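Hi team,

Filling in the usual template for the complex we talked about on Friday. All components are listed, including any nucleic acid strands or ligand strings, so the model treats them as one assembly.

SUBMITTER: L.P.
PURPOSE: interface mapping
COMPONENTS: three
RESIDUES: 992
SEQUENCES:
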Amino acid sequence: MARFILRRLIWTIPSLIVVTFLVYIAIRIGTNPAESYKRSNPRANAAKIEEYKQLNNLTGNYVKGYVKWSQGFLKGLFDGGASWQRTIKGRQEVWPLLKDAMANTLRLGLAATVIGIGFGILLGIYVAMRPGSLRDATVNTGAFVAFSIPPYVSAVLLQLFLAVMWSRWFGSSLLPTSGVYPPGHQGFDLWLMAKHMVLPVMVVSIQIIAVYTRYMRASLLEVLNSDYMRTARAKGISERRVLVNHAVRNSLIPVVTVAAIDVGGILGGLIITERIFSYPGMGDYFLTAFSNGDFPQLMPFMVVVVFAVLMFNLVADVSYAWLDPRIRLG
Amino acid sequence: MIDRNDQPILSLRDFRVSFPTINGTVQAVRGIDLDIHRGEMVGVVGESGSGKSVTFLGLMGLLPRTAVIEGSAKIDGEELVGRTSKQMRSVRGKRIAMIFQDPLSALNPVHRIGKQITEMLNAHQSLSKVAARERAIELLDMVGIPQPDQRAQQYPHEFSGGMRQRVMIAMAIANDPDVLIADEPTTALDVTVQAQILDVMQRIQRELNTAIVLITHDLGVVARVVDRVQVMYAGRAVERASVENLFRHASHPYTRGLMASLPSLDAHRLVPIPGAPPNMLEPPPGCAFAPRCSHRRDECVVELPSLRPFGAGETSCVRAEELVEVLQ
Amino acid sequence: MAEITTSVPPVTPEAIEAAGTDSLAASGLSTKSLSPRQMAVRRYFHHKGAFAATIVLGIMVLFVLLAPITARYGVNEAIFRAQAGVPNQNLAPFSKAWFGTDEIGRDIYSRLIYGIRVSLLVGIAAAFFATLIGVTVGAFAGLRGGRFDDLLMRVTDVFLAFPFLVALLVVRNLLGELDWVTSIFGPRTSLRFIIMLFTLFGWMAVARIVRGNVLALKEREFIEAARALGASNWQIVSRHLLPNSIGPVMVALTNTVVAAIIGESTLSFFGFGFQAGAGDTSLGLLVADAKGGVLSGWWWKVVFPCSALSIIALCINFIGDGLRDATDPKLVQG
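RESULT (copied from the run log):
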C-alpha cells in the first residue's frame, strides 16, 4: 500500500511540471502581451509594454521563460506573494486578490459539495432499496431533470422567481441574489454571509445531488445483484449488517473515487454560478483576469487549479486502492 | 452411520416454487418430496432449469421477494415455509448452510477472509474477538488450507479457485450446521481440484456428521462421493436411488439418457438426448420428459407421474416395469 | 446402454394440433423471435421518457428546419417600427409577438427559432466529429493496449478532471491566437471555430467509452474465434468490435451533443462565444440577454430561452437514456 502511494506520488511531480509548462505556454500565447497591456492601459507607450514583457519574461524562448517564471512563482510562495508580478490593470498585488477569491469559493464550493454529495448518496441508497418503485421513479426522473438543466439556467430562473418576482409580489426579496455581503458591509457576519450563500449553494448542490443520487443508486444496484450479497444473506446475519458492511461498503468505492475528483475541481468549477450571483470568488477572479489577458494575474490561478486537480486525482487513486484491495497489487 | 429409521433432518413435502413474470408464471419447482437424514450425502442431479437449485434456494429463503413458495420444508421438524426473513435468520448459517458455485464472486472482495469467517461465527455465537479469530483459523485448517493464520489476513483474490471453495466450506461449517447445501460447488473448478473439494466435503460429512446436499449436473461428481441420488427434470423428481443402484439399474429413461450422453472410452459417438427441456411457463401435461422420450405412450401424458417405489429405489416412470428389459 | 433414436414424432393429440411435426414446439419451446435490432427498437420506445423526448425534439427540429416558414419575423427584424408613444422594446408577450420582444423590438419567438437552429448545428456537428475521432482513437487504444493506451488514459484523466470552463476558455484563447488555426477555422467567434473547439473537448470522453467497451469485448471468445479464423486487426475492428459498440457510442454521442449545446450557450453567456453580425443569435446569446431581464422583471426574456435550452437538454438526455436501455448488454441477454 505504501509502495503504491509512493509510486503515484513520484509520478505526480513530473506531471505537475509538465502540465504547468503546457499551461504556461497556453496562457502566454493566449494572452497576447502587447494587446492585453494596451487594452488595460490605453495610454501606455512602447517602453512600458516592453518593460512589462521583460518583467514577466514574456519574450523569447518558452522553456527559459517557464523556468524564470517558476522561479519567481516559487519564491513568491514563501514571501507572501511579494515576488509575484503585479497585475496589468491597476498594478495590484496578486496574492491578496487570489487569497480572498479562494476563501470565498472554498466556502461556497465546500458547502455545496458536502451537502450535495452527502444528500446524493443518502438519496441514492434510499431509492436503491426499492428499485422500480414509485419513489424510485420519482427521484430518478427528478434527478434526471435536475442535472439536465444547466446550472446557470436554474440559477437565473431561481434568481428571477425567488428574488425579483418575490419582491414584486411580497415586497422585499426573499433571499439576496448577489455578493458575499450587502454592498458596503464591513467586517465579518456569519448570519449575513449564510443568507447570501443560500441561493448559490442551493443551485450548485441540486446539480450535485442529482448526479450523485444516480451514481450511488447505480452502484448499489449492481452490488445488490452480486453473488456475495446472496452469500451474506445465507450467513444469517442481520439485514442491517448485510446492508452496511456489504452493500453500502462495496458500492461506496466508485462513488468516493469520483467524489475526490469532483472536489479537486471545486476551485475552478463555480465560475458560472459565481458570475450570476455576483459572488466574488475564483470565478470572478478568473473571468476578470482572462478578459484582460492579464498574464501575471492568471498564472497563479492556473497553478492553483492544476495543483488541486492533480492532487485530488492522486487522492482518488489512493482512496480507490485503499478501499478496494484488488487494486493494490500493481 | 446413516440410520434411515431416524427422523430425517430435512424433510420436503410437495415443495413448490413459482415466479410471476411479465410473460406468465414460471413453475420452477412443481412438487418435491424429499427426506434427508443426518450425516448422509444426497446428490441432486439435473440440467439447468430442472429446478434443483431453486428448490434449495427457496427453502433457505434466498429467492427474490416475488417468488411464491408453497408446500412444506421442515428442518428437524420445524417448518420453514412461510417464515419471515427475520425468522429465517436463525436457520441460515446455523442449522442450514449453503455454498455456491463460483467462490470468487460469492466472497466479498473487499473483506479479509478471516473477517468473513468471524462474521459467520459472530452471527450465531457469542465469542470474544480473540476466540473468534482462533476458531476461524481452526476452521481454515480443518478444510486443509496451509498456513491458516497468515491466510486469514488475505483477500479472496489472493487465493486460487480451489482454496476459495475451501474457504467457503470453512465458513459454512463454522456454526456446525445440521445440513450443508452445496450448489454446484465444483462446476467452476479444474478436475483435479474438484476431487480435492469433494474429499473435503466427505471428511466433513464423516467427522461432523453433517448432512450434505450436493447439487450438480455432473454425474461424475455424484458417482464419487454421494450415498443417494435424486434426479430432477422440469421441476419434478423423476428417480431416486442409492448411487450404485442408479448407475447400475437406472429405471427412468431420462436418467438413462443422461448416462448415455456421458463421454466414455468405448463409445464411438456422443449420444445426446434429443430435444430441449420444456418451457416452464406452460409445462406439458403428464410426464414432462415425454416429448423427448422414445418410449412414451399415451398413458405417459395423462397425469403428472409421482415417485413410487421400484426395485431398490423410486421412479416416476409409469412404464418402468415394462422398460426394465429395454433399458439394460 | 440402450440406443436412443434421434427423431421425435409427437404423440399427444394436443401436441399434434399445436405443432404439426415440429418437435421443438411439441416440447413446449417458443419459436417466435425478433432480430436484435427489432428488440432494441422496442426497448427504446418502451422507455417513456425517450419516446416523449423523441417526439418533442422531432417537432422542434421540424420547426427549426422550416425556419423561414415557422418564424414569424426575420432574425434581426423589429416587429414594427417604433413610433412616438408606441414603443416596441421589451414588450410582454401578445398577439404580435408570442414570446414578447427584446430591447430593440425584435420578436423573441422568431429569434428563438433561429437561435435554436444555430445551437443545434453546433451540437450535432461537434458531436459528429468528436465521435468520429473518439471512436477511432478509442478503438485503436483499446485494441493495441500498451503504451499508447496508457498515455491516452493518463492524458484524458487529467484533462477531464480540469474544471471545464477554465479549460475551455484557455484553449479557446490559445487556439484563437494561433494563425494556422484561425486560417482554417476562422476567428474564434466564428461558428466553425466553436464547433472545432467542442470537437476537441468532446472526443476524449467518447474515446474513453469506446476504449472501455473494446477492452471488455476483446476478452470475449468471439474475438478469439475471429482471430483464429485469420481475421486482421482492421477486420476485427470493423466487423466485430464496432458493431458491438454501437450502443455505448450512441449514448456518448448524445452526451456530447448536450455538452456542446450547453457549452456553446455558456460561452455565449460570457461573451466568449458566437458573434456573427446581422443580429444572428444562438440560444446562449438569447439566455445572455436574459440576464438583463431578471432585475427588471421582464420575465419573458428569461423564461422562454431558458425553457427552450432546458427542454432541448432534457430531451437529448432522455433519448440518450433510451438508447442506453435499448443497447444495454445486460438487458439484451435478459
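MY TAKE: The mean pLDDT of chain A is 84. The two ends of chain A are 10 Å apart (CA to CA).

Thanks, L.
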